[in-house]
Amino acid sequence: MTLPDTPYALAALALCLGFALGWAHFASLRRVTDLYLESGPAWRALALQLGRLAVLAGVLVGLALLGALPLLAGTLGLLLARQMVLRRSRKGA
């Protein structure tokens, strides 16, 4: 499998990747919060939190290595997913 030839196709893929990553990242925030508030071992919450941040940083660094346009598109996807997760959690609360 090869990368798309045009920068716009690569940016569209980065947008989708950023959206999927943002959805998973921000949706798992509730689980991290629940783990911190439970009386169980704190290492689980810490491990999930560090894992979330490591995956986010790794993907953003990978997009930065592909160029400015994929990085901006991926970040836009991340922010769009954040808005959707926040809106969904406000309706459920």
In words, what does this structure look like?
This protein is mainly α and 93 residues long. The protein is 86% helix and 0% strand. The protein has helices at residues 7-27, 29-37, 42-66, 68-92. It is elongated, with a radius of gyration of 15 Å.
What are the salient characteristics of this protein?
93 residues; 4 helices
Distance between the termini: 43 Å
Tell me roughly what share of residues is in helical segments: over 70%
Shape verdict:
elongated
SS-derived structural category: mainly alpha
Low-confidence stretches: none
Mean pLDDT: 90
Count of DSSP helices? Answer: 4
Largest sheet: none
DSSP summary, beta strand count? 0
Helix and strand element order: HHHH
Strand content is: under 5%
Rg over CA atoms: 15 Å
Q: How do the strands and helices of this protein lay out in sequence?
A:
Elements: H1 7-27, H2 29-37, H3 42-66, H4 68-92
Helix pairs in contact: 1-3, 1-4, 2-3, 3-4
